[in-house]
Design a protein that fits this description.
The structure holds three protein chains of three kinds.
Chain A: H1 2-14, E1 19-24, E2 27-31, H2 37-47, E3 51-60, E4 65-74, E5 79-88, E6 93-95, H3 104-115, E7 118-120, H4 145-153
Parallel strand pairs in A: 2-5, 6-7
Antiparallel strand pairs in A: 1-2, 3-4, 4-5
Chain B: H1 2-33, H2 43-52, H3 62-79, H4 95-102, H5 105-115, H6 120-151, H7 156-162, H8 171-174, H9 176-190, H10 201-204, H11 215-239, H12 246-266, H13 272-280, H14 282-297
Chain C: H1 6-11, H2 13-19, E1 23-25, H3 36-40, E2 52-54, E3 62-66, H4 71-83, E4 89-93, H5 96-99, E5 121-123, H6 130-146, H7 151-157, H8 159-169
Parallel strand pairs in C: 1-2, 3-4, 4-5
Helix pairs in contact in C: 2-6
The chains are: A alpha/beta, B mainly alpha, C alpha/beta.
Chain lengths: 160, 299, 188
């Protein structure tokens, strides 16, 4: 736990507005406001978190927010860090992390397609997995999946 | 005269039967090497019947059709010049050179058809095939030149008859270095692993055969089988004393073929650069050394 | 196996050839293809049935739709199926082509393969075991013998029905090779 506490102090010193929690050995959670996400990524990369594993998105429907989670891994300390930011559900916008980690282009493309988040600066927010999609972003929790499926693919009557 | 005409008709039939049998035998032996049962020996016959009875044959134009016809015709024409046991319908002095030229006719026909098939995989496969041919022609021709100089003839029938008297007269004992060089490039001439990158399913989607279906694929399979027969027949005629009759000829071809299938069953595939480096290095050196020795001793 | 049945062979060599030489197009459409490598390798040898994997649709006459079919894959499957020469057989492999399977309420997978392609047989399971695949091959032999494996003819006769269903889920599917729609650049 010593190393995690040192990392926590280093992160708190180099950023402001970041809330750092050490969950257990090898797990750290950092929460920042949306505008500070990319600059915090730069600080974290300097502290030793050089590998971005993935970016995931959670839809907090009751609170009216989308939460972006950047999963980072530090090879030298073997610590997994989650960087969480919240965006508003209507017209979610944030800045791309491509200058920090170039491969975020694909994760942001997927989140743009599935949740509707716009990443300013990503040159390739084009259709990815869905084929000529015309509906709302499908991974949002207010997407009526059963109704959409019934309408698009039809319903087979039960033979009873 | 009549005997010549009869053997001109009989020899291609015998060659086709042997060639298709070798196809089935290779699949069975490969399966047994892999410790599984494998298809029955007459499976290529079933495959050819299926391909010929397909209701739709997708063609890509006249050159596509003619290329396939040319490849099979070239293969059958080459067979007429290679003595097989007692059958040598069209043999004369210089027929070995004719065979060396005609051998290229059937791959050329297949390349024409592949070029007409408008598929980039086919073009890549054809270019790989020609690079392979460039690779194995160097040691093969050096060794063949050594054989021709040693026997002072360019006729395959004379080469066979000069090895006839006893076992020790076989070229594999009197000309060991050219025989070794040709044996080392035999997998490349047969297009079996490790040299089957021209028609690799995983890399180039079957190469030249990518757009062939139905009866075109049946003829391409027959052409492949005939090419195997031609290469094995040349090897047996040059280095293993031909055959007194068709049966001993067939048994010698079977022995060489068996070794080839065993090599094919256990080896992976070379890259193009690796294959070329291999073919131009030791086999070429050994063939050249053999040629120098032959020219020195036969002054 | 009834390969040694000479009378049946002589009655219809075409059926004999089509049955014992089913070359499957090695297009791995979904996650179900994980069961195909065990089938074609040494332990459960499919070559003794005459079944070989082929790299190109021009050489294949059996199409195994393994696993779920997303909309993007459906376009590729239709194009591949159109390139195969007749006679060709389609076998739905796993429970996803049958009724959607595990992804029955997914917004991006088709639920009934039968509406878009003519299917000759189904193999139930998630995933079917190799033994089930061999039972299906033997069933397909019997169907070919009786002349019941006529999916390709049904496709040609009822092409308007299939094309209507295909365009319902894939509105930008180009017609036969050569026709360009304005949205051709968007698929993929």
């Amino acid at each position: 736990m010593m190393r995690e506490q040192e990392i926590k102090k280093a992160i708190e010193k180099s950023t402001d507005g970041a809330t750092v929690t050490v969950l257990k050995k090898g797990r750290i959670l950092v929460t920042v406001p949306a505008a500070a996400a990319v600059s915090t990524l730069i600080c974290l990369k300097a502290v030793g978190f050089e590998h971005l594993s993935a970016i995931s998105c959670t839809d907090w429907l009751e609170q009216g927010e989308l939460e972006l989670v950047y999963h980072l891994w530090s090879y030298q300390d073997k610590v997994h860090l989650m960087l969480k930011t919240r965006l508003a559900r209507e017209n979610p916008q944030t800045v791309t992390a491509i200058p920090v980690f170039p491969h975020t282009q694909t994760y942001e493309r997927e989140i743009h397609e599935m949740y509707g988040v716009h990443f300013e600066g990503n040159p390739r927010l084009t259709p990815f997995l869905l084929e000529h999609w015309e509906g709302p972003p499908p991974m949002r929790r207010d997407f009526q999946m059963r109704d959409y499926v019934k309408e698009k693919f039809g319903v087979e009557e039960r033979i009873s | 005269m009549v005997q010549q005409v009869i053997s001109m008709i009989v020899l291609p039939v015998i060659a086709l039967v042997i060639a298709v049998f070798f196809l089935g035998l290779s699949r069975k032996i490969t399966a047994r090497i892999h410790r599984r049962h494998g298809p029955p020996l007459y499976q290529p016959l079933i495959d050819v019947v299926k391909l010929l009875t397909q209701k739709e044959n997708i063609s890509h134009g006249t050159i596509f059709d003619l290329g396939i016809v040319l490849s099979v015709a070239g293969g059958l024409a080459t067979i007429l010049f290679i003595p097989a046991g007692g059958l040598h319908p069209l043999s004369s002095s210089g027929d070995f050179l004719v065979v060396l030229y005609l051998m290229l006719l059937s791959p050329l026909g297949l390349a024409l058809a592949a070029g007409a098939s408008e598929n980039p995989n086919a073009s890549i496969g054809v270019s790989r095939k020609f690079i392979l041919a460039l690779g194995y022609e160097v040691p093969f021709l050096l060794a063949a030149l050594a054989v021709m100089v040693h026997f002072r003839t360019t006729s395959l029938v004379e080469i066979v008859s000069l090895q006839r008297e006893s076992l020790l007269n076989w070229s594999v004992f009197t000309l060991p270095l050219p025989a070794l060089a040709t044996f080392l490039v035999l997998p490349a001439m047969l297009s079996i692993r490790p040299f089957d990158f021209a028609g690799a399913p995983q890399e180039v989607a079957s190469g030249p055969l990518v757009e062939l279906g139905g009866k075109y694929l049946a003829f391409a399979a027959i052409q492949g089988a005939l090419h195997t027969y031609i290469v094995l027949a040349i090897f047996v005629d040059l280095y293993l004393g031909g055959g007194a009759n068709i049966l001993t000829f067939f048994l010698k071809m079977l022995a060489v073929f068996f070794i080839g299938v065993c090599i094919n069953g256990v080896m992976p595939r070379f890259r193009v650069k690796q294959a070329l480096i291999y073919l131009w290095k030791w086999p070429a050196i050994i063939a050249f050394a053999g040629l120098v020795i032959v020219m020195w001793t036969s002054r | 196996m009834d390969r040694a049945d000479i009378a049946k062979t002589l009655k219809s060599p075409a059926n004999w050839g089509q049955k014992y030489s089913l070359w499957a197009v090695y297009f791995c459409t979904g996650c179900g293809v994980i069961e195909i490598p065990p089938v074609i390798t040494s332990r459960w040898d499919a070559e003794r049935f005459g079944v070989l994997p082929m790299a190109t649709p021009r050489q294949g006459n059996l199409f195994l739709i393994t696993g779920y079919v997303s909309l993007k894959t459906m376009g590729a499957i239709i194009r591949t199926y159109d390139q195969m020469p007749d006679p060709k057989y389609v076998v739905g492999f796993g429970s996803c082509p049958v009724n959607g399977g595990m992804y029955w309420d997914s917004y991006n997978t088709i639920k009934h393969l039968d509406k878009y392609l003519p299917v000759d047989g189904w193999i139930a399971g998630c995933m079917p075991r190799p033994e089930a695949i061999f039972v299906a091959v033997v069933h397909l032999w019997q169907m070919i013998d009786k002349g019941m494996a006529t999916g390709y003819q049904k496709y040609k006769e009822n092409y308007e029905y299939y094309e209507r269903n295909q365009r319902e889920i894939l509105p930008h599917l180009p017609k036969f090779a050569g026709e360009k729609t304005e949205a051709v650049g968007q698929t993929l």
